[in-house]
Amino acid sequence: MRRVSAIVLIVIVLFSAVTATARVLNIPLDFQTIQAGIDSAGAGDTVLVQPGRYDENLHFSGRAIVVASCFLNSRNPAYIDSTIIDGGGRSSVVRFTRHEDSTTALIGFTITNGSGSPDQSGDNAGGGIHCHQASPYLSHLKITGNRVERYGGGMFVQSESSPIIENTLISENTAGYFGGGLYCSRQSSPILRRVVFSGNQSMDGSAVSLFMDCRPIIQNCTFSNNSCDGRGSVARMFWTCEMNLVNCIISANDPDSISLTGDPAGNTLNIAYSLLTGGESMVSVSDTSTETVHWLEGNLDANPLFINPDNCDYRLRMDSPCIDAGDSEAPLDPDGTRADMGAFEFHQKDIEVHPREITFEALPFGARDSQLVVVTNTGETDLTIRVEEAVARSAISMREAEVGEIAVPANTGVQLWAIYHAQELAQESQRFIIMSDDPDEPEITIEASIYVDGVPSDRPQSAIFNLQSAYPNPFNSSTTITFGLSKLAPTRIGIYGLDGRLIDEMDLGKMEAGEHTAVWNAQELPGGMYIIKLDTDEGARTLKAILLR
């Protein structure tokens, strides 16, 4: 039988170019509600939502915009948990019904307490998200705790809708009829990648239910602990549907996992490089003359060996049979190894160091600068590192070189600081060696180089107007800004967002010529990049600073 490949490469470009008219609308700073931000947004705008619980039911009204939590800039998953859109049990939490496409995006929220909206037949559907003739981009969401009387407790997709859903948890949703997690109907073909379906319930098709010519592509997804009263705890297919499963894990669902329900034209299931506990026997077919199951290469019947499935931790144990068991023609996992099965890749390469090359900008004599080096342990076992400096008496140093051994626990990281003090007019370089007990990469070299523009010896550093540095940078809560004035002048330091909006300011009054410092306390601000601007009657100077959260 010819092998069917269901690998689809999707490239999403949310911002191909940032135009002068694109804006960032901050909630609740600019608008009190998310819906007010959406209503005021134009094409290409971003509605950035600060952490909190928002009691709202959103409608995108066809706008090509991005609505996101602070996860968008920080990549910190804590913002997904702390930025909640609560539908209040009134209707669907979020609706896309006006031909939205992938230029419309929803990123980084918990979507909960929705009760659905009428579909084209008037039935209650789509508790968390309701898509009708719409194909938005949905990423890094938790769609949980939604309940509908009819279809699609977590999500409803109807009428030629093809949303892209990535890195999302769909859990603990309930539908009275079909599709506790996701219901697709009428020529809809969503693309799902790295989605977890867990704890969803319905009469049939508790995780996914397909009706009438739907053709979803499901890649690297995990289905576990879903249950239904009838057939298809993972999926129910009815009326000429075709489902493609690749690199997926299906385990511990109750009862039979996938049901193909008879109709005159039949349904088709293509499954490859996936683990289905119980094997092909967990696929039920009502009529073998019309229903087709393509049980293709690479499928396994085994226990996936999750870390802690009872607490919904579906990451893979180091002895899981799903590691490196995915399609060999699929893109490699981030650690450079063959694709794993399931929603969570197993990081086999323990140590990551970034960056591995450092270049300091030209600095005046006597100035200081620093750059952050992050060492991350992406594996499942603890690491020990130490830093060595290859070049003696260099102007570039790393303070951690004097510390000795540094512990880096599993799935955590440490920050190292490369510090440069411009002491003489010369080309300078340094080589830092990160030693670790990772057997695959025991030594990692970081090359550091600089060039310092000279300052004439008859003009001291204190007489130069400049904005020298912010140290540390990146920083966690506060950073010290160093600057110089060449004469007595009123002095002000402003802090701006990347959208040009003033965030904070320090009016320092009149200051004498010389070198000065000011401390910026950013403890109440979200993580991200900010612009520091020094203003005097001599002019203005700017530099960038990164606030970590």
Short description:
The protein has 549 residues and is mainly beta.
Integer count of domains:
3
Q: Estimate the strand proportion.
A: 35-45%
What share of residues is helical? under 10%
**Which structural category do the helix and sheet elements fall into?**
mainly beta
User: What is the CA-CA span between the terminal residues?
Assistant: 52 Å
- Poorly predicted tracts of residues: 1-20, 452-462
Q: Residue-averaged pLDDT, rounded?
A: 86
Number of discrete helical segments: 3
In CATH, the architecture of the largest domain is 3 Solenoid
Identify the CATH class of the largest domain. Mainly Beta
Rg computed from alpha carbons, rounded to a whole number of angstroms: 28 Å
**CATH fold name of the largest domain:** Pectate Lyase C-like
Overall description:
- It is a single chain.
- With 549 residues, the chain is mainly beta.
- It folds into three domains: 75-316, Pectate Lyase C-like, CATH 2.160.20; 351-451, Immunoglobulins (Immunoglobulin-like, Sandwich); 461-547, Sandwich (Immunoglobulin-like).
- 3% of the residues lie in helices and 44% in strands.
- The protein has three helices and 51 strands.
- It has an 18-stranded parallel sheet that branches.
- A hairpin with a 6-residue loop joins strand 43 and strand 44.
Helices and strands in order, then pairings?
Elements: E1 24-27, H1 34-40, E2 46-49, E3 52-55, E4 58-59, E5 66-69, H2 71-74, H3 78-82, E6 83-86, E7 94-96, E8 105-107, E9 110-112, E10 117-118, E11 124-125, E12 129-132, E13 137-139, E14 142-144, E15 147-148, E16 155-158, E17 164-171, E18 174-175, E19 182-185, E20 191-198, E21 201-202, E22 208-211, E23 217-219, E24 222-224, E25 227-228, E26 235-238, E27 242-246, E28 249-251, E29 258-261, E30 268-272, E31 275-276, E32 283-285, E33 292-295, E34 306-308, E35 313-316, E36 351-354, E37 357-360, E38 368-377, E39 383-389, E40 396-398, E41 406-408, E42 412-421, E43 427-436, E44 443-451, E45 466-471, E46 478-485, E47 489-496, E48 502-511, E49 514-521, E50 528-536, E51 539-547
